[in-house]
Each structure stands twice: as C-alpha cells, then as structure tokens.
Amino acid sequence: MTPPPTLAAIGPQDLSGRVQKLQSILDVAKQMAAERNMDNLLPLIAQHASRVASADRCSIFILDRERNELWSKVAQGTTREIRLPVGSGIAGTVAQSGTVINIEDAYQDERFNRSFDTESGYRTRTILAVPMRDANGEVTGVIQALNKDVGTFTAEDEELLLALGGQAASAVENALLHKEIKDLFEGFVQASVVAIEQRDPTTAGHSGRVASLTLELARATQRLSTGPYAGTRFTPDQEQEIRYASLLHDFGKVGVREPVLVKADKLYPHELDALRARFQLARKDRELQSLRRRLEVARARGASALAELEREEEPALLASLKELDEVMEFILACNRPTVLAQGGFERLSGLSKLGFSDAYGNAQPLLTEKEVKVLSIPRGSLSQEERLEIESHVTHTYKFLSEIPWTRDLRRVPEIAWAHHEKLNGKGYPRAIPGGEIPVQSKMMAISDIYDALTASDRPYKKAVPHQKALEILDSESRSGQIDTELLKVFMEADVPGKVCSK
C-alpha cells in the first residue's frame, strides 16, 4: 500500500485530480441523499465508488444484522443476490473488524474466494475493501473496489472511499427507512382490505379489482395525445396514491351495521322466519276453523249430516290453504331484490287485509304495515333509511383516512376516496359536488367501481352482468351526465378490463 502523499509532494495535475474526486464525492452525496429506491441507490454508489478509487468495478455489500450476513445485488458485475456470513471472505472480515483491507495480489491472499472469478471469467488482481459507517460509527456495509486502473490502491484511495462510504451509509440507512415506511403503509392497507372483506365477504376481491382497473385507466389516460385529458401525467407516487385510495375506498363499511351491509333480500332472515311462522299459524287456524264447523254440524244435526258437509268443507279448506301458499310464494318473489312487477304494489296493499286468529282468539294480520312497506321497495333490497346508511360508508371512509398521517406524496388519498360516488351532474353523494370539483382520480375510480359492481359474480343479491352489457350501462350513465364521457371512452377503447384480466 502506498502512503498518502504530503501536500508539498502533490503536483498541480495530481492536486487537480484529487479536487475532482472530492467534488465527485460531494456531487454523489447530493444524488444519494435524493435517491430513496435501494435498487437505484446501490448501482449509483458502485458507479461513483469505481470512479473515486479509479477501479475497474465495485461491489456494495449491506449488513443484515438479523441474519448476521452481508447481502448484495451489485457485486462483481452480477445481478443475482449474493449473501455471505459476517467474518467470511474479504468483505465479511471488513464488516466484522471495521478495518480497511487493501490487497495488492488477490490470488496470494487466502481470504479471496476465486470461485467468483471462475464463474464470471473475470480476473481479480487488486482489492480495496472499506467499511461503510453510519453517523454513530456503526458498520452498515462494505464497499469493495476491484482492480486499480494503474498499479495498486493507495492510502488516498482508502481515504476517499471511506469518505464516500460514510455518505453511502447515510443514504442506505435513509433508503432502508423509506422502504420500511412504505412496507408499513402497504401492510396497513392490505390489513385494512382484509378487514373490509371479512366484514362483507360478498364483495371479497372488489377493492383489489377496482384498484387494478383504476390504475390501468390512469396509465391509459397518460398515453392520450388529444382531447381534454391530453398531457395528463401521474408520477409513481401519484399512482401509488391512486392505488391506496382505490384499495381503501370502501373501508368506511366497517362503520355500517353488518345486517344492513350484507342484506341480500328486502326482509332480514329473522323477519322472514317470523313471517313464515305466522303463515304456518294461519294454516293451522284455517284447519282448526274448518274442524270446528264440522264439529258444530255434527253436534247440531247428527253424524249423518257430516258426510254432506265434508263434501263442501274439504274443497273449501284446500282452496283456502292453497290461497295461503300462493300468497307466500308471491311474498317470496317480492322479497327478492328485483323490480316489482306491474300491479305488485296494489296486491301487497290488499294482502295487508288478510288475517288469522292467534292462540287467544285475537285477530292478527298476515302482513304488518312495516312488511308491506319493505316488500314494496321498487328496486334492490334496501329501504331509503338503509340506503342512506350504506351511503354513509363514504363519509366514514373519509373520516378514517383523514386520521392517518399520510406522507406528502400520499396526502390526497382521503380526498380521492371521498369523491368516488360523486356524479358529474352534482347528484352524487355524500356531498353532491359538481363535476368540476371532483378529482380526476375519483372520476376514474367511479367508472372502475361501477364496472366491477356490475360484472362481479360473487354478489348473492344479483347476477353478474356480461362485459358488453356493463359497458352499455356505463355508456347510459355517461350520457345522463353521471360519469365522465371522455374517461369512459378511454376505458373502453384501451380495453382496460381485458388488460387487467390478462395480467
């Protein structure tokens, strides 16, 4: 190893070269501080380390304290990940001891692993390995330079590479911290999606599909060269913002009562059970009344008159019981979340006049006023009050997401999710804001949300709508001023659903 030259011994040309290397370290320090992606950062460090040390190539090893290993994806020209125990080989020794290793002839050093050269066909001659130390002086990794361009690595190379290693250690620490934060957010979002789907299993997968559709639509929109959305661009962080908003757009459903959330028919199961029990009592009541009439005739006129009464009473009883069965079938049909047939409302109102006598002889209605009202819901399974409760999930979503300390890059997640049920004509919910105030990301999500709700095959209260029919319904909604016509055009022409399905 050549000792560092004194200032007096450094010529103007050498001094200029050293200044350039120091300037290079400052420049790369700025670049590293701005780079938060580890896959981009490590090659950047390797590239500048090679330049500073005048080396043919460099390897960057990061210390994994949990496994007590060094790992690298940027090592000796290979892209595969390499792992080696701390204390093993040259880099492992530097990580363990925290000291610099400068080797003038690699093949004369027993710590050198020749297998890397054998695999790659590379010939290693000189090696300089220095520790990367963080602000606390702890070793966080190793920079290993190979093959000095002229001669062997000098003390000046060690000094410069150590300086670069300090900057690199801080940058790597920041990148790892950034990744941990991103992983934390990702884990939280995924856990929230699981919570949503466990609360409402009938919509399992909906949030993920809406996120995929919305992201694909956003990317297709960025390819436009004409029209009102030409020039629309989203950074990677903004695309992540769209993804998170889409994944969490229905999280507020955790604030909606579960019976309302999963209501498949107009009557709740316990209400239908009570109605069925009432009809069974009505059947028994009619049978009992028929038997009483027969008994009274037998008592008054004798057993000889009973046979004649039987010929009248039995058909009448069967007809009466058949009427009850037909009424029950009609009620079951009304209970399904379909559009009520013409005349159905009037018939339901008439059925409210049917009754029976309970065990105490008191008159009871077959259908209560509340049941008639619920069964008369013209479309779907929800009453107006229940629909408002379901719609409140958007407000719950916004309030929940607003409590999260989102990073600056993701700060619009609550706003985007909040507006996914708003309409361009100002008739959406929960705020009924006009189209000009709706974020474009929310407009995209609205199209994706409607499409997936129409085509989903896992809803117990409706059949899946075919792809083409779903597009026709979306087109109808765009023509009525509810969703964005231009974005729907991109959705259809770019075949967003097809591309998502093919991935």
Structure commentary:
- With 503 residues, the protein is α+β, with helices and mostly antiparallel strands.
- It has 3 domains: 7-180, GAF domain (Beta-Lactamase, 2-Layer Sandwich), CATH 3.30.450.40; 200-258 and 388-502, Hypothetical protein af1432; 269-380.
- The chain is 55% helix and 9% strand.
- The protein is built from 19 helices and 8 strands.
- Strands 3-2-1-6-5-4 form a 6-stranded antiparallel β-sheet, sandwiched between helices. Strands 7-8 form a two-stranded antiparallel sheet.
- α1 (12-34) runs parallel beside α5 (155-199) and α2 (38-53) packs antiparallel against α5.
- The mean pLDDT is 87.
* Main pleated sheet: 6 strands, antiparallel
What would CATH call the architecture of the largest domain? 2-Layer Sandwich
Structural class: alpha+beta
Secondary structure: number of strands: 8
The CATH class designation of the largest domain is Alpha Beta
**Low-pLDDT residue intervals, each spanning 5 or more residues:** none
Order of helices and strands: HHEEEHEHEEHHHHHHHEEHHHHHHHH
**Terminal residue distance:** 56 Å
In terms of topology, how is this protein built?
Layout: H1 12-34, H2 38-53, E1 55-64, E2 69-74, E3 82-85, H3 89-97, E4 101-103, H4 115-120, E5 127-133, E6 139-148, H5 155-199, H6 206-221, H7 236-247, H8 258-261, H9 269-301, H10 306-335, H11 344-351, E7 355-357, E8 363-365, H12 369-375, H13 384-391, H14 393-402, H15 413-418, H16 440-455, H17 467-479, H18 485-493, H19 496-502
Antiparallel strand pairs: 1-2, 1-6, 2-3, 4-5, 5-6, 7-8
Helix pairs in contact: 1-2, 1-5, 2-5, 6-7, 6-16, 6-19, 9-10, 16-17
